[in-house]
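Lab notebook, bench 4. Still working through the backlog of constructs that have no structural model yet. Next entry is a single chain of 287 residues. Request: give me the structure tokens for it.
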Amino acid sequence: MFYFWQKYKILIVPASLIIIIFGGLIFYFNRLKHVPIPPRPEMNITIIPGWTLRNIADDWVKKGIVKTSEDFYLLAGKPAYNYKANRQVAPVWDFLVTSTKDYFFQNKSKYLSYEGYFLPDTYRVYKDAKPEEIIKKIFANLDEKITLQMRADIAASGKTLDEILTMASVVEKEAPTSESMGTVSDIFWRRLKSGWALQSCATVNYITGKNDPAVTAKDRNIDSLFNTYKYPGLPLGPISNPSVNAIKAAIYPIKNSYWYFMSGVDGQMHYAKTLEEHNRNVYKFLR
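Model written out:
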């Protein structure tokens, strides 16, 4: 009898230990469930209206999104670069949503960068987000901001989205306000319709990377299809990333009878109907 009791006690002790250990593990893992997980760090990135891919590349390098500007250009393409002339093809974004890609890029040249498609705005992103994830977010915003009505109006005008973004990108660099954007847009569209050259200093600055209010004769003669002094029509593609206001100005120009405009040192836009009047404005407001 004593032997049996001793044997029974020996069996009970390990069983008790197992229960205690098992209970402790349950308690431990239950506590783990309630330990708050640190939030994934976030940050803001801002694309300023009129920024080019150069500006975005520099900003993303500073923020650690990409290591070098060239890493960014591998995704977005090189600014002011004609891939066709160099027997190359621009980067293709297979990670874009099909519906977005179909609409936004159906008329975009495969030989150009994605300049013009990075909608200016402030974006909240994870600090460790991949650049592709951020680009998806930017394009989702562009997809939302260009409404169905705007798309219908673009189609009704006989223009493509790429043509609208290209015009908007020039208007963004040439005019400071929504009203002046609409006025300049109408001037440019009428110049194109009449066979005039756009003669936009902003297109030359895009090629050179400068920000000169009045470009030099040497720069105006640069042989590039982005140069609207040397080649008629719209530049080869967008020369900046335009705001929604600039895009709307390209779609809905404000009708006027001017043919010339300039931004003076007084910070105002000055319009003219004749070249003589324009030259007087230049003499008066650029000195």
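Notes after review: The two ends are 118 Å apart (CA to CA). The longest strand covers residues 42-46. Flag for follow-up if needed.
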